[in-house]
Specification:
Layout (H helix, E strand, L loop, with lengths): L12 E2 L2 H5 L14 E3 L4 H14 L3 E4 L16 E4 L6 E5 L4 E4 L5 H9 L3 E2 L12 H7 L6 H4 L6 E7 L5 E5 L11 H5 L8 E8 L1 E2 L3 E9 L2 H13 L6 E6 H10 L10 E9 L1 H17 L3 E4 L3 H12 L1 H4 L6 E8 L5 H15 L2 E7 L4 E8 L4 H20 L18 H4 L2 H14 L13
Parallel strand pairs: 2-4, 3-4
Antiparallel strand pairs: 1-2, 5-6, 6-10, 7-11, 8-9, 8-10, 12-14, 12-15, 13-14, 13-17, 16-18, 17-18
Helix pairs in contact: 7-9, 12-13
């Protein structure tokens, strides 16, 4: 092969500047122009593209919908972008064994809608679920609000079909609910951010759809009380389906973006859902409400499906709404033990005061995952530098409280320089050795995770 255009039809190889620009960025603030974008339609075509890149030692960037927050799909060194958006079929839904087979370009919400119409349930629900692809979710090990009770993407991936950097194809894992033959390559590839292989098929475990859901909006006049409610709820032996947190700045930003009727005078709110059998769900909801009431909360129950959807639309609007506060935001997705949430929020307040920056917090408080948004303007160089400097302070506080610097966004380019704060040199060396075994020519998403 002499040219990338020899591999696929011309209409699936993009090279014009306008087309390339559309694939030069993701949801982070970083960007880089690719040399070409290729859109395979099958595993065989993926294999041909990867073999070409292997022979040419050309950097290759697998890409889904570009909703990642850490520049995981941003091209480096004039790389070839391998866009999997066209491989978007739900191949099989096995209702008897509760196993689904999909291609990587399937939109998360499309699968959820299809399953729910059949009385089935795929729990992982990232905020971008209406746009993000399942291949991207697997590559980043995406989470979401329901991770508190149901876990994250890795907990539902039973197996994968992947194309290795050599162009060869293997299948990992099993379609049975047990299997311990050999090393678990599936869990190694899940969350590897496209640095080890290209995902071409995904075998997912699904669940029966819960009988009932009750949604509670709990508003607090003090952020400390809202933070204290989180460990109190989980310590009461109730695991809600979701336990989401928004501070006052996040609430006001959402209401300015699109009025949903959230109380702008509340210092914080918790959006809490419980689900399960109709015979027990009301008892659990009442116990959750009693805990929040004991901390001074006001409680509103979503009366119907429409009200519940409206509340979740408001929650999912937080990230875009924050641009009403500042033109630039640095978004971090730290995680601390639930019991440390009050201390972490206090530390974030002090960091904001230290750098004279507004820090807006929201996220999945039920599992300790706080989305820390440092509001700034990258066109004001001094302020933007302070914002970037404050990130290390945020990570230092997170690790001091026994947490991790990324719960669901991954490392990508944005956090690569910080991983040594959390991982030991030996651990990093082992990971780099694994990368070399899979990818001796270092073509798969180079520069991501490791500097």
């Amino acid at each position: 092969m002499k040219n990338i255009k020899d591999i696929l039809p011309n209409n699936r190889v993009l090279t014009s500047p306008e087309e390339l620009f559309c694939y030069s960025y993701d949801a982070s603030s970083m960007e880089g122009l690719p040399s070409a974008v290729v859109k395979p339609a099958s595993t065989e075509e993926v294999s041909k593209v990867v073999s070409y890149a292997f022979e040419k030692k050309a950097p290759l960037i697998p890409r889904g919908a570009g909703t990642g927050m850490t520049a995981g799909s941003v091209p480096v060194d004039k790389a070839i972008v391998l866009s999997l958006e066209g491989m978007n079929r739900i191949l099989d839904i096995d209702e008897r064994n509760l196993v689904v087979t999909v291609e990587p370009g399937v939109i998360n919400a499309h699968l959820q809608g299809k399953l729910e119409s059949m009385g089935l349930f795929y729990p992982p629900d990232p905020a971008s679920m209406d746009f993000c692809t399942l291949g991207g979710n697997v590559a980043e090990n995406a989470g979401g609000p329901r991770a508190l009770k149901y876990g994250v993407t890795r907990d539902y991936v039973m197996g994968l079909e992947v194309v290795l950097p050599s162009g060869k194809t293997i299948t990992t894992g099993v379609k049975t609910h047990k299997g311990v033959v050999g090393y678990d390559l599936t869990r190694l590839i899940v969350g590897s951010e496209g640095t080890l292989a290209v995902i071409t098929k995904i075998f997912l475990k699904v669940l029966p759809l819960p009988e009932e859901v009750i949604t509670l909006l709990c508003t607090f006049q003090g952020i400390e009380q809202a933070a204290m409610a989180v460990p109190k709820i989980t310590a009461s032996k109730i695991i809600p389906r979701t336990l989401e947190f928004m501070d006052n700045e996040a609430i006001k930003a959402v209401e300015a973006y699109k009025p949903f009727g959230l109380p702008s005078d509340a210092e914080a709110l918790l959006l809490i859902e419980v689900d399960g059998a109709r015979s027990s769900i009301n008892i659990e909801a009442q116990r959750v409400a009693d805990i929040c009431l004991s901390l001074g909360a006001k409680i509103k129950v979503a009366d119907d499906v429409y009200s519940r959807r409206k509340l979740w639309e408001a929650r999912r609007a937080v990230s875009p709404a924050l641009y009403r506060i500042s033109p630039t935001k640095i978004n971090e997705d730290i995680v601390v033990p639930r019991s440390k949430i009050p201390e972490m929020l206090n530390a974030l307040r002090k960091i904001g005061e230290k750098y004279n920056l507004k820090i807006v917090n929201f996220g999945h408080a039920g599992d300790g995952n706080i989305h820390v948004n440092i509001m700034t303007d990258k066109n004001r160089s001094d302020e933007y530098q302070k914002a970037k400097d404050s990130v290390r302070d945020v990570f230092e506080a997170t690790l001091k409280f026994g947490g991790t610097i990324s719960g669901e966004h991954g490392v990508g380019l944005a956090k690569a320089k910080y991983i040594g704060m959390e991982l030991s040199p030996l651990s990093i060396d082992i990971m780099k050795s694994i990368k070399r075994v899979f990818d001796p020519n270092n073509i798969m998403n180079p520069g991501k995770i490791f500097l």
